[in-house]
């Protein structure tokens, strides 16, 4: 079976593909990766050469290319997206083009060639901010940022292809991922790389915003369960089970990097910053046997150690980001 995976030069997609390629079983799929290699994608996140990997550099909006790849594919896992909320606040255009239009191009091609399951990777952010409790899959979508609005649009579009055309679409909505190879614009790698370099870290507002943390390997395991055992037309929440305020997370990261609170700069809050996300993942647990396996304390220590030991991976990225910002 040839599995088309979009966006797999990025953080989560590359972890998913590396796990698939590590499999030795006879049913391990051939993987075709389609990735544009935007600022967030690194070809180095995947093996340079592997008998079961084909890497194609291209845009998910390129209908002719997508049609050709879909004709050769049996199933799809769709990670490709513009993924950083702050960037969507300064410019929403690429978020609509990639996350919404790109998803539609993929869905149309999947429909033409009868490809399924089509697993669409989404986010807990589509449910919006929750003061208490946890969102279930059939709760209303109340996205706040242009990023989460573009993801919610893509979810609805994907599910519409199931309802209208009967395409085998499955949607996953996960909480905040952490782990190695996350682009150093997201809070954990940003804070760790800055602390390791002796720089201050910017904490938004009063730091009371709460996120649920999910190790990227647990997320990938959940996605694989949805691909192999999930039901057509269904949405599955994939949670991590470790809720922390940004202030609590900052304390853990300072401690892991041997730094004190004098390194924290309180900066103006993000516009429209959602206070808390939380998903109820009972459905994935009861239907698919999903549960997060990675303990957060160990996972975080391993992640910090990875950034400590892999400066060659992130230094060019932070340098380039600094240059782009005129720094
Ligand atoms: P990422 O930014 O690290 O990677 C995105 C990848 O998509 C990159 O390799 C990039 O080159 C590629 N890409 C972007 N636009 C493209 C286009 N037009 N055509 C082809 N490729 C393109 O993102 P990530 O953190 O790995 O997130 C993967 C998915 O998971 C996204 O759909 C995101 O919305 C979702 N998600 C992420 C998190 C998280 O905590 N990181 C949480 C919830 C959901």
Q: Please report which band the strand proportion falls in: under 5%, 5-15%, 15-25%, 25-35%, 35-45% or over 45%.
A: 15-25%
Q: Assign an overall shape.
A: globular
Bound molecules: nicotinamide-adenine-dinucleotide
Tell me the number of structural domains.
1
Number of strands: 12
CATH architecture assignment: 3-Layer(aba) Sandwich
User: Secondary-structure element sequence?
Assistant: EHEEHEHHEHEEHEEHEEHEHHH
How many distinct helices?
A: 11
- The name of the CATH topology is Rossmann fold
Structural class: alpha/beta
Q: What's the helical proportion of residues? A: 40-55%
Radius of gyration based on Cα positions: 19 Å
In round numbers, the mean pLDDT is 96
Spell out the CATH superfamily: NAD(P)-binding Rossmann-like Domain
Model regions low in confidence, pLDDT < 50 over at least 5 residues: none
Q: How are the strands of the biggest sheet laid out side by side?
A: 3-2-1-4-5-6-10
How widely separated are the two ends?
Answer: 47 Å
CATH class: Alpha Beta
Oligomerization state of this entry? single chain
> Strand count, sense and closure of the main sheet?
7 strands, parallel
Characterization of the model:
Helix content is 42%, strand content 17%. The longest helix has 21 residues, at 93-113. The chain has one domain (2-183, 214-240, 273-294): Rossmann fold, CATH 3.40.50.720. Helix 1 (11-22) crosses helix 7, helix 2 packs parallel to helix 4 and helix 4 runs parallel beside helix 5. Strand 5, helix 5 (146-165) and strand 6 form a beta-alpha-beta unit. It has helices at residues 11-22, 63-71, 85-90, 93-113, 146-165, 187-196, 216-229, 246-256, 282-288, 296-309, 311-324; strands at residues 2-6, 30-35, 53-57, 75-78, 118-123, 169-174, 176-178, 201-204, 210-215, 235-238, 242-245, 264-267. The chain is of the alpha/beta class. The model has no long low-confidence stretch (mean pLDDT 96). The structure holds nicotinamide-adenine-dinucleotide. Nicotinamide-adenine-dinucleotide (NAD) is lined by residues 6-7, 9-13, 34-38, 40-41, 59-61, 79-83, 98, 102, 121, 123, 151, 174, 176-177, 183. Keywords: Lyase, NAD. One of its GO terms (molecular function) is dTDP-glucose 4,6-dehydratase activity. It catalyses: dTDP-alpha-D-glucose = dTDP-4-dehydro-6-deoxy-alpha-D-glucose + H2O.
């Amino acid at each position: 079976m040839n599995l088309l995976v979009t966006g797999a030069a990025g953080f989560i997609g590359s972890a998913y593909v590396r796990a698939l390629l590590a499999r030795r079983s006879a049913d391990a799929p051939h993987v075709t990766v389609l990735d544009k290699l935007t600022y967030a994608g690194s070809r180095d996140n995947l093996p340079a050469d592997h008998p079961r990997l084909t890497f194609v550099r291209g845009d998910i909006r390129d209908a002719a290319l997508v049609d050709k790849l879909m004709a050769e594919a049996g199933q799809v896992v769709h990670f490709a997206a513009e993924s950083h909320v702050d960037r969507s606040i300064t410019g929403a255009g690429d978020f609509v083009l990639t996350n919404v239009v790109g998803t539609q191009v993929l869905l149309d091609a999947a429909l033409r060639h009868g490809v399924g399951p089509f697993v669409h990777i989404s986010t807990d952010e589509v449910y919006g901010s929750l003061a208490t409790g946890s969102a279930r899959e059939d709760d209303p979508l109340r996205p706040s940022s242009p990023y989460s609005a573009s993801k919610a649009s893509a979810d609805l579009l994907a599910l519409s292809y199931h309802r209208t055309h009967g395409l085998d679409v499955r949607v996953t909505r996960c909480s905040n991922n952490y782990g190695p190879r996350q682009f150093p614009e997201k809070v954990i790698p940003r804070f760790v790389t800055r602390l390791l370099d002796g720089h201050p870290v910017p904490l938004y507002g009063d730091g009371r915003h709460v996120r649920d943390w999910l190790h990227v390997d647990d997320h990938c395991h959940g996605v694989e369960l949805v691909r192999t055992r999930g039901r057509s037309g269904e949405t599955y929440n994939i949670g991590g089970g470790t809720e922390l305020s940004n202030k609590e997370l900052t304390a853990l990261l300072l401690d892991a990097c041997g730094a004190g609170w004098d390194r924290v700069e309180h900066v103006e809050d993000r516009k429209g910053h959602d206070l808390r996300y939380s998903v109820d993942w009972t459905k994935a647990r009861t239907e698919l046997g999903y549960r997060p396996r990675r303990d957060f304390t160990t996972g975080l220590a391993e992640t910090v150690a990875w950034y400590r030991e892999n400066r060659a991976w992130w230094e060019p990225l932070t340098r380039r980001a600094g240059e782009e910002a005129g720094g």
